[in-house]
Amino acid sequence: MKPVVSSLWKHSRSVRWRLPFALLASSLAVGCGQPPVEGSEPDAPVADPSAQVAEPVVALDTALASATNDPDEAPARPVVESLVAIPQGVTSKATASLFELKLDAKRSENEQFRGQTLAMAEGSQQLLFRDDGQNGDAVAGDLLFTASGTFDFVALQAEQQRIAQAQSQSQEPLTTAVFENRALVRTVPVTAMSTVFQVGQRVPIRPIGLASLVDPARSLIIRAPAVINDPTRTWDPCTNAGNPAGKWTFNYLMTEMANQPFTGVAPTTFVREWVRQWEAPRTINSFVSPARTNIVPKLVTPWPKLTTGELNLARSPFKLIAIVNRLDLAGSNPAYGAGSAGEGRFIFAATEGTGTSCHTTPFLVILEYGVDKTGCASIKTYAQQWQALSGLALGSASYNAALEALTEQFAKRDLSPRKPNRSSINQVRTNENWLFNPWELREFRLWNTTVNPNSFASPGPVLGLLNSHTVAQTPDRATKTTVFPSYVNANAASIVAGTYSVPLVVGATPFRGGRSIVPSPFATPPFWSLPAASIPNRQARHVFSLNTCDGCHGDELGISFTHVNQNGALSPFLSGPMVVPDRADGAPVRTFNEVLARQTFLDQTANQSCLTAAFTATSASVH
Q1: Using H for helix, E for strand and C for coil, what is the string for 165-221?
Q2: Which long-range contacts (CB under 8 A, 24 or more apart) does 541-547 make?
Q3: 329-341 per-residue burial string, b: 16 or more CB within 10 A, e: under 16
Q4: Is 404 helix (H, G, I), strand (E, B) or coil?
Q5: Where does the pLDDT of residue 108 fall: very low under 50, low under 70, confident under 90, or very high at 90 and above?
Q6: Lower CB density within 10 Å: C or N end of the chain?
């Protein structure tokens, strides 16, 4: 029996779906991205409440919604070839229109949608696209879906005028970029359509993002000294300059995340128990993350203390390195009546030494917040606010105030009442070789009783605290010659299509790891590679490897460890075009241009109809 496709599109909220940047099949992830949300399992054990450090003031699992309980596998998404609107009257903000949505008949994943119905949202209306030969659909099962409703042609006219203005101010022809499985596959010329739309005219609705209208340094990856050293919003542990309680300090952000009025957990306890997780081995999904006991002499001992002996968070030895807009990590998009606004991130580096010898270290802490906005209007407004930063002087008073207004939309406490601690945080990640070699990536999450505890360290996660968690999309290295090849071969189609998520176990065998390591030098061929005799589908091998922590931060790209290092320097992956021959086979040669993809996507989201998101291709990339 075929699935009820309209229900899958309308109601699925899987955060593993990634929105398009432009045209047809396009997807993106940079650095470590947003991982799958863990769902509850009926027979999953519940963590021992006696292990709690502090008794919560209220039950943390009260009124939690199922939006945090997505399944391990994301439903497939159709690959769209074209979409047109046909006005039936004089164009206006709500012109009665017919719509035709054509799926690509050459893509095998579209077969499951043949003869079905697809539900999409345009503004406040629900459009039902039909391929069942009923209610206006001419031929059942031809992958040409039809719908009727209204369309805002005034907004489309304004968008064409914006494109024309951009072209008049550009020395180069306008293009938009097309990405698939994070690789740049082509650029497409962009020209403005006529703004006169006649009754009965077939008007194409196409996703177009103008990358030139987004300044990455101001709207995407913000590292300017006048921002990260803002004396009213940041604090520098090396110079003791700034505001120890500023809105971009480690102190403020961890205090908000702990949310003591709700959880009963003091921020000092919250941070100390997080740091303690390096002091002893941690078993996660049966895999052991060894202790890195140097955390005590290197970080805990020199950390300034309160008179009670507790950590003084106002003097936290973490310096802000960057603020990052990850709108591109949005989940279900507004074309399907749901949506989110991706992630917002803060990157900190630990410091050591005093006075003139004080410096940042290769111990990076990335706070990765979900931006809980739904619906086209809300997401577009948020995107427009990020794009507006490109028009302000970087680091000026007005710029920093506007940026704070954005970060407070995800960093404040109580913004996500249905998530653990009522915090918007998705996960905290660390990337370091300061404590020990090799480079190691770890992941920590908050927990409540709607979230599967099996993906946390045993004996079980603790309410109110950050808990050690499996690393997204990354198996333990011990599975390379056993579960890894069989899993890739069994799931090659979904891996290439981007609808897979690395499970905790395969059969009865633990698979997803509790940490990821990146040796130096990185491996050639990449670690997650076996010969074609073991994994015949080489694209599936590449995509799987690229989506792992150690592949993205190491050998699948040929990059050393960090995408933003402790001094704020960017990796080649974030510095422009990067041409990489397949690291296992030497071919094909792929071009990556991560920042171009983010620029394109931000402009598209901020300025175009949500129906352009129908061109989404799934992607399981989360790093």
Answers
A1: HHHHCCCCCCEEEEEECCEEEEEEECCCCCCCCCCCCCEECCCCCCHHHCCHHHHCE
A2: 541/488, 541/584, 542/181, 542/582, 542/584, 543/181, 543/495, 543/496, 543/498, 543/620, 544/488, 544/495, 545/583, 545/584, 546/181, 546/182, 546/621, 546/623, 547/29, 547/473, 547/620, 547/621, 547/622, 547/623
A3: bbbbbbbbbbbbb
A4: helix
A5: confident
A6: N
Sign of the C-alpha dihedral computed for residues 105, 109, 112 and 116 taken in this order = negative
Q: Please, is 114 exposed, middle or buried when counting C-beta atoms within 10 Å of its C-beta (0-12, 13-18, 19+)?
A: middle
Task: Report the predicted TM-score, pTM, of the whole model to 2 decimal places.
Answer: 0.88
CA–CA separation, 470 and 464 (whole Å): 18
Instruction: With H, G, I as helix, E, B as strand and everything else as coil, classify residue 454.
Output: helix
Measured from the Cβ of residue 60, the count of other Cβ atoms closer than 10 Å reads 23
Query: With helix as H, strand as E and coil as C, how does 510-552 read?
Result: ECECCCEEECCCCCCCCCCCCCCCCCCCHHHHHHHHHCCHHHH
| Cβ-contact 213, 163 below 8 angstroms | no
Exposed / middle / buried, residue 441 (Cβ in 10 Å: 0-12, 13-18, 19+): buried
CA distances from 479 to 40, 178, 476, 498 (A): 25, 34, 6, 21
Give the angle 584-587-588 at the CA atoms, nearest 5°: 120
Helix (H) / strand (E) element for 227: namely helix 225-228
| Tokens representing residue 431 in the block | 């990337």
Query: For the segment 149-192, what is each residue's pLDDT rounded down to a tens digit?
Result: 999 999 999 999 999 999 999 989 999 999 888 899 999 999 99
What is the rounded CA–CA span in Å between residue 182 and residue 485? 22
Backbone phi, psi, residue 204, to 5°: -70, 140
CB neighbour class for 189 (10 Å; exposed up to 12, middle 13-18, buried from 19)? exposed
Beta pairing partners, 591: 184, 579
| Rounded distance between C-alpha atoms, residue 123 and residue 149, angstroms | 11
d(CA 275, CA 525): 35
What pLDDT digit, counting tens, does each position of 549-604 carry?
999 999 999 988 999 999 999 999 999 999 999 999 999 999 999 999 999 999 99
* Phi, psi torsion values for 245, nearest 5 degrees: -115, 15
Angle (CA) 576-400-604 rounded to 5° is 45
Contact 589, 152 (CB under 8 A): no
Query: Of 408, 334, 341, nearest to 371 (Cα)?
Result: 341
Average pLDDT, the chain: 87
* 570: CB partners within 8 A, 6+ apart: 221, 563, 564
Structure tokens at 289: 């993350």
Looking at the DSSP bridge assignments, the partners of residue 83 are 101
Residue with tokens 């079905």: 116
